[in-house]
Write a structure and sequence with these properties.
The protein has 147 residues and is mainly beta. The protein has one domain (2-144): Hypothetical Protein Pfu-838710-001. The chain has helices at residues 65-72, 117-122, 141-144, and strands at 2-9, 21-31, 34-40, 43-49, 55-56, 58-62, 80-88, 94-100, 108-113, 129-132. Strands 1, 2, 3, 4, 5, 6, 7, 8, 9 and 10 form a 10-stranded antiparallel sheet that branches.
């Protein structure tokens, strides 16, 4: 089960480039239910996500590079490229701060995965976070790939 909230940003942290990060490229074979392929650095993953906005089923399976490249030719919509910065929080959580390239050049989205729905709902975001877009489907990558 994936339980996460998403925010736009009021400002970008100053030392973001010093944070650990991943180079990500992903595309969608289907959007209802979500079936995604992803290259994260040198890893290749096939993901299934069930319905829902904050909490939903998620299953990840490893892919070979060859399988990823084959499936990439079959995506529905555009390939999304982004850098994901990992910012640790004092409570053991991690902010996954995505800086998008093509086709959403310059967009920043912060996501935090939580151990429970209760923890997600009670979380007080840092001051530099902006609008909470958890329940806005326009900010789900599967929808963004179609714009």
């Amino acid at each position: 089960m994936e339980i996460e909230r998403k925010w736009l940003l009021k400002s970008v942290p100053e030392n973001l480039s010093d944070c650990p990060h991943h180079i990500i490229e992903q595309g969608y074979l289907n959007t209802a239910p979500v079936v995604r392929i992803r290259r994260q650095d040198a890893q290749y993953i096939l993901t299934y996500k069930g319905s829902g906005l904050m909490a939903r089923e998620e299953y990840n399976l490893p892919l070979t590079k060859e399988a990823y490249e084959h499936l990439k030719t079959k995506i529905d919509g555009r390939l999304i490229s982004k850098v994901r910065y990992l910012i640790p929080l004092p409570d053991g959580l991690t902010i996954e701060l995505d800086h998008f390239s093509s086709p959403h050049e310059g967009l920043y989205l912060a996501e935090i995965e939580f151990p429970s729905v209760e923890a997600a709902e009670s979380y007080a975001a840092p001051d530099w976070f902006g609008e909470d877009v958890t329940y806005d489907p326009a900010y789900h990558n599967s929808v963004m790939s179609r714009l």
